[in-house]
Amino acid sequence: MAILTFIGAGQMASALTFPTFENGHEIRLVGTPLDREIIDQLRKDNYHINLKRTLHDGIKYYQVEEMEEAIQGADVILGGVSSFGVDWWADEVLPKLNKDVPIITVTKGMIDLENGDMITYPDYWQSKPAGKELNFNAIGGPCTSYELADHDDSWVAFCGHDIETLRYLKQIFETSYYHISLSTDVKGVEFSVALKNAYALGVTLAVGLAEKREGIGKVHYNSQAALFGEGVCEMRKLLKLAGAGADNIVYGAGDLYVTVFGGRTRKIGTLLGRGLSFDEAMAKLKGVTLESIVIATRTARAVRNLAANGKADLKDYPLLMHVDEIINQGKPVNIPWTAFETEYVGE
Ligand SMILES: NC(=O)C1=CN([C@@H]2O[C@H](COP(=O)(O)OP(=O)(O)OC[C@H]3O[C@@H](n4cnc5c(N)ncnc54)[C@H](OP(=O)(O)O)[C@@H]3O)[C@@H](O)[C@H]2O)C=CC1
Ligand SMILES: O=C(CO)COP(=O)(O)O
């Protein structure tokens, strides 16, 4: 049995208590300053008010001021914040961690630098003085929290620089329904699953466009599939541009699929496709975790910066550029269909 301390009691970290608790480990779930109500309710009856599932009886719950007690004696630390909590995690959590205890984080995203370089969250945390000596690992791949809690079969990738640590983590987390590949290509896994959030917004514009034409609830798949194909194509190019292994597209494409059908990003793409302005759509979704906006903005900015230095061609990313125009320049949805067309002539 190992002692696992999860810091951040959002939906994904809380869903991961299912495989790990069922494997017989001691689970300590610590809330962020924003998770107070979640922890209060869990302490009463194990019910998670955002995940909308009852967690296993026996999990230990901690408010943020009890974090140090929860970290004492832990064998693994799991980071559960979203992109919006990355700096809180860097400032408030990293200084309390021990270099001999592996860390695994669920946060999907990346940070772009002024020169257009893109860095993963594990690399960002490692660049902090308190993170220098820590052993960061991360989870990527298609896995909605509520479906994991329901024991639907899920296949993800654990990535990190040390394969022995990854193997150790895998035997702690893996169950008959939570399947884990391992990869030391951290950039590849992390970028792939970060990018899917930008493109999930792009694909789900088609959901809203069909509803705008034919009424709410009307579904068409041709247009969604066309945007999905273009999205995967652009993600693959972006992986190469960022210096990451393009084979990792397998995790990003799977993640794009699940997010289009079951993720929160579907909500914003659909509203924009129906014709709401960006501000109207955001107002309707107040309180929903929408990382797609952050990732699309950062990715488009990185590509524009690289293009300005002759290292990228904006014409290779028409869907990303259009998503950026919609969310950052207030432009209406007008899918650039002809920009997706290609011509291939064999040898
Ligand atoms: N690796 C994987 O397999 C998967 C990863 N994910 C990713 O996991 C991450 C978390 O997702 P999920 O749990 O669903 O999201 P939630 O919104 O449920 O949880 C986010 C967590 O981050 C905290 N947080 C948000 N903003 C701040 C802040 N400014 N300071 C401190 N803490 C903050 C939240 O507090 P509060 O609850 O109050 O907002 C909460 O603890 C995301 O990056 C998501 O993309 C999602 C699915 C699968
Ligand atoms: O990352 C996810 C599934 O793998 C969930 O995506 P959303 O944040 O859009 O819900």
TrEMBL record:
It is an enzyme of class 1 (oxidoreductase). Residues 5-151 form the Glycerol-3-phosphate dehydrogenase NAD-dependent N-terminal domain. InterPro entries: 6-PGluconate_DH-like_C_sf (IPR008927), 6PGD_dom2 (IPR013328), G3P_DH_NAD-dep (IPR006168), G3P_DH_NAD-dep_C (IPR006109), G3P_DH_NAD-dep_N (IPR011128), NAD(P)-bd_dom_sf (IPR036291). Keywords: Lipid biosynthesis, Lipid metabolism, NAD, NADP, Oxidoreductase, Phospholipid biosynthesis, Phospholipid metabolism. GO terms for molecular function: glycerol-3-phosphate dehydrogenase [NAD(P)+] activity; NAD binding. It catalyses: sn-glycerol 3-phosphate + NADP(+) = dihydroxyacetone phosphate + NADPH + H(+). The keyword NAD applies. One of its GO terms (biological process) is carbohydrate metabolic process. Pfam families: NAD_Gly3P_dh_C, NAD_Gly3P_dh_N. The keyword Lipid biosynthesis applies. Gene3D superfamilies: N-(1-d-carboxylethyl)-l-norvaline Dehydrogenase, domain 2, NAD(P)-binding Rossmann-like Domain. GO terms for cellular component: cytosol. Its EC number is 1.1.1.94. The active site is at residue 196. Residues 185-334 form the Glycerol-3-phosphate dehydrogenase NAD-dependent C-terminal domain. NAD(+) binds at residue 264. Belongs to the NAD-dependent glycerol-3-phosphate dehydrogenase family. This is Glycerol-3-phosphate dehydrogenase. It comes from Catenisphaera adipataccumulans.
